[in-house]
Amino acid sequence: MILERELYKSISTTRAILKSLRAYSFTSLRILIKGKGSILKNDKERGLPQLIDPSSCSGCNDCAVICPTACLDVKIDKEKLSSMILDVKKCIFCGLCKEVCDPQVIELSDYRSLASHGESSWKIDLVEKNEQA
Predict the structure, then answer these.
(1) Do 108 and 93 meet the contact criterion of CB atoms below 8 Å apart?
(2) pTM for the structure as a whole
(3) b vs e for 37-72, b when ≥16 Cβ sit within 10 Å of the residue's Cβ?
(4) E runs forming strands in the chain
(5) Which of 34, 65, 125, 127 is least surrounded by CB atoms within 10 angstroms?
């Protein structure tokens, strides 16, 4: 009985590994043949928030208030957006900041910064980043 159970677990694990390898192989082959653009993105995938036009921000602070992890820190200076700090470690890519933004200043990029070598890159000033781009 114990041997049968172990054999079944072994067969199940082998099948799962083979299924993963097959999916990886097909995806890799498709990328090699058709290019990276051939892979369609899932509509549910979201990236980091980014600002389209910081000058049209009304300074309502709704994006920071609705954020469930408080990853946005909005600073207003003389009714003008001076900085919007995004803490990448806290962001869960929920997209609520984009949905609540009335002037449509925030959009979600397809970029996810999930690894970094320095602590300084975990906090991004979206206003400054927009000015550099």
Answers:
(1) yes
(2) 0.61
(3) eeeeeeeeebbbbbbeebeebeeebbbbeebeeebb
(4) 49-51, 72-76, 81-87, 106-108, 123-125
(5) 34
